[in-house]
Design goal:
The complex is a heterodimer of chains A (245) and B (178). Chain A is an alpha+beta fold. Helices cover 48% and strands 20% of the residues of chain A. Chain A has 8 helices and 8 strands. Chain A is rod-shaped and about 140 Å long. Chain B has 2 domains: 3-79, RNA polymerase sigma factor, region 2, helix turn helix motif (Rna Polymerase Sigma Factor, Chain: A, Orthogonal Bundle), CATH 1.10.1740.10; 91-177, Winged helix-like DNA-binding domain superfamily/Winged helix DNA-binding domain (Arc Repressor Mutant, subunit A, Orthogonal Bundle), CATH 1.10.10.10. Chain B has 8 helices and no strands. The chains are: A alpha+beta (245), B mainly alpha (178). Chain A binds chain B through residues 8, 11-12, 15-17, 38, 41-43, 45-51, 53-55, 57-60, 63-64, 66-68, 70-72, 74-75, 79, and chain B through 3, 7, 10-11, 14-15, 18-19, 21-23, 26-27, 32, 36, 39-40, 43-44, 47-48, 106-107, 110-111, 125-126, 128-130, 134-135, 150, 153-154, 157, 160-161, 164, 170-171, 174-175, 177-178.
Chain lengths: 245, 178
């Protein structure tokens, strides 16, 4: 082993990349040659200093925190988004469902007819009409009176964000009942027959056990509902009322 | 594995190798601030990759180093980074009154000598001399043949020695500086 070869091998020894046999051979030369020994020492020293110097470069304490924060945020954002969107959609659907069925949709006429918890029970039509805020008098209900139907009770069905529904119930001594409903404009019942009464189109029909008749006035829709009288009978009774209220 | 468990094990992994990553990044960027940015970016990429294929990672440190090296390429392209100035050393103004043997000045000179090396030589020196990777590992990490690793490493070391010698450092002065 000469000095030139030894120089080439010094790094390989320090890198632990030389075989044991070559290792021993080179080290033996280094021990006997002061020039090579100096090169060996210089390389070893440089390497040691480099290790100390570069090894002294440490990540700041904040760096790890920042990394964890960044990845946590990314993680949360990744999983949070779909959860957040789903929650919003569920909330919106719930609100939509709630308002649609509870507040926005008109009650069915038979549901109105079945209302029994009257806010005011009286056979005084003026008192009842005052309660619901509709200008009704005895003349309007004269045909009902002739048919032995007299006022029984009144109710205001208050609906949030929507106009109220008002109703007066009339009964005769046989227990037959007619509900006179004052509905906000836009109440539609499909598949009904039409009849002209005093120049007003009156829609009428039956569904299940209930009979209906309704017409539109300038500010509201007015409906009659009964299980006991057919639509034509109801229209006859309501004739003075049509086009008057 | 649950994602939170993966996150925890990734945090542990980073905790163990963060200093090495920082050192490699420093050797790449020559600037602490940029090095920290590079490490952060590397960790974000590593985390995404870890979530998907943590089971395939055999050598976490080599895997992290590889990501850092690739991230640095993107980083340089994205931010149009050239090699920037080294962190300044506070003792700059006092140089005239000091001796070559002073430890602080030695490290400043060593830092400057490293700066004068080409980046790929710096990385080789870091991987071989500081982080003690084998030639095979370096070859895999940098995607170059072992022979190239050996010859480039030899040249890098020779250059570093010459640069230090130019600054007046000999075996004795190095021993004194320690």
């Amino acid at each position: 082993m000469d000095c030139k070869n030894t120089e080439l091998y010094i790094d390989a020894i320090l890198d632990n990349e030389l075989s044991v046999k070559d290792n021993l051979e080179v080290l033996s030369h280094i021990r006997s040659c002061s020039d090579c020994k100096e090169k060996w020492d210089l390389n070893e020293e440089t390497r040691a200093e480099l290790k100390i110097f570069v090894g002294s470069i440490k990540a700041s304490k904040n760096l790890q925190k920042e990394i964890v924060k960044k990845n946590n945020y990314k993680n949360k954002r990744f999983y949070f988004r779909p959860a957040f969107i789903s929650a919003c959609m569920i909330l919106m659907l719930s609100i939509g469902f709630f308002f649609n069925y509870t507040y926005l949709q008109f009650p069915q006429l038979h549901e109105l007819h079945n209302v029994v918890d009257y806010q005011l029970i009286s056979n005084d039509i003026e008192l009842l009409s005052k309660h619901i805020g509709i200008n009704l008098n005895k003349e309007h209900l004269s045909a009902f009176e002739e048919g032995m139907f007299s006022p029984h009770g009144a109710v205001n069905i208050n609906r949030p964000f929507n106009k109220d529904i008002k109703m007066i119930t009339l009964k005769n001594d046989k227990g037959h009942k007619i509900s006179l409903c004052f509905l906000p404009k836009g109440y539609k019942i499909s598949n009904l027959n039409k009849t002209q009464v005093n120049g007003v189109t009156v829609h009428h029909g039956s569904k299940d056990d209930f009979h209906f008749a309704y017409w539109e006035s300038k500010v509201m829709d007015i409906a009659l509902v009964s299980q006991d009288l057919n639509p034509i009978e109801m229209i006859d009774l309501a004739e003075p009322l049509i086009n008057e209220v | 594995m649950f994602s939170w468990l993966k996150r925890k094990s990734f945090e542990k992994l980073i905790q163990v190798h963060l200093d090495s990553l920082m050192q490699l990044a420093y050797m790449k960027c020559e600037n602490r601030e940029l090095a920290e940015d590079l490490v952060q970016e590397t960790c974000v990429k590593a985390y995404n990759s870890f979530l998907k294929k943590h089971e395939e990672i055999k050598s976490p440190k080599a895997w992290l180093f590889k990501i850092l090296i690739n991230t640095h390429i993107d980083f340089t392209r994205k931010k149009h980074l050239s090699i920037v100035e080294l962190d300044t050393v506070d003792l700059e103004d006092q140089r005239d009154n000091s001796n070559v043997g002073d430890t602080a000045f030695f490290y400043k000179d060593l830092n400057e000598a490293l700066k004068e090396l080409r980046p790929e030589q710096r990385i080789l020196i870091y991987l071989a001399d500081v982080d003690e990777h084998s030639y095979k590992e370096i070859s895999e990490l940098l995607n170059i043949p072992i022979g190239t690793v050996m010859s480039r490493l030899y040249n890098a070391r020779q250059n570093l020695r010459k640069l230090l010698a130019k600054k007046g450092y000999t075996k004795e002065s190095l021993e004194v500086s320690r």
